[in-house]
Amino acid sequence: MDILNEIMTIFPYNRDIIETVESGERYLAVMNNEGNIGVCAVLGNDTSNVNIENPDLKSIPDRIFLTAYYNSLLNIKQQNYGSGDIAEIIDFHDYRNIVMIGYFYPIVERLKNKNVEVSVFDFRDLEVSLPLEKQKEYLQKADCVILTATSIFNKTFNEIIENTSGDVFILGPSSILNEYFFKFQNVKAIFGSIFEPYDNKVSDAVKDGLGTRKFLKYGKKVVLRRE
To answer: Using CA atoms, how far apart are residues 68 and 45, in angstroms rounded to an integer?
Structure first.
């Protein structure tokens, strides 16, 4: 099963609602015809020539574009979101084996300050990350998984969900804030971002190759929780 394919079935893709697409070194941003902005991390992929007329689900750059597109479509201010940072909202002291898929440095540091240990896996060869061949073993023992939303476009989401029975929290500005994800019983909350409509400062920051810390100051961290 392909997450993006299912989302496209529920919310059919409509090229006509796209106003602008900005591709940068770290993120891609889409603004739709209601001014709503969605972003997605590119993780080193070249997204300068994505096919916005007929996106191909077999293409990683096109999948990145589609993730940003659905953020612009579904991550909107009118929704009843909570607000705040995952490290403040979730009491991670309730868990014994926490696994993080995709390294979020600020979150790890905040949890470390709370004396909470996290096992980190990342496709990048980072000093803090464990060998990827051990990821499945750690997931099967985890009672909590902090999962990067980029797993949606890189086709690892389903495998990760299937290999853990622990509580899953989807995290990052690439998150698609929609209750669709609660069809997976262990997904407890989605932590993402929303922006003010027609805020070109976000698109400009993305185009200039700036990262999360730069453009998130123009937005708001929000959470969609399972009721």
So the answer is: 14
pLDDT tens per residue, range 188-215: 999 999 999 999 999 999 999 888 888 8
Q: Is 164 inside any structural domain?
A: yes
* Amino acid found at 201: K
CATH of the domain at 190: 3.40.50.11590
Owning domain of residue 109? 82-194
HSE-up (13 A, CA, CB side) for residue 25: 5
Q: What is the pLDDT of residue 79?
A: 78
Note the pLDDT tens digit of each residue in 144-161: 999 999 999 999 999 999
3-state secondary structure of 188: strand
Alpha-carbon torsion (131, 137, 139, 143), positive or negative: negative
Q: For 110-149, what is each residue's pLDDT tens digit? A: 999 999 999 999 988 788 889 999 999 999 999 999 999 9
**What are the beta bridge partners of residue 166?**
none
Phi-psi region at 189: left, alpha or beta (left = phi > 0; alpha = psi -120 to 50): beta
Distance CA 17, CA 151 (A): 25
Question: Is 183 exposed, middle or buried, given 0-12, 13-18 or 19+ CB atoms closer than 10 A?
Answer: exposed
Q: What gap in Å lies between CA 92 and CA 118, rounded to an integer?
A: 10
Element of type H or E holding 31: strand 27-32
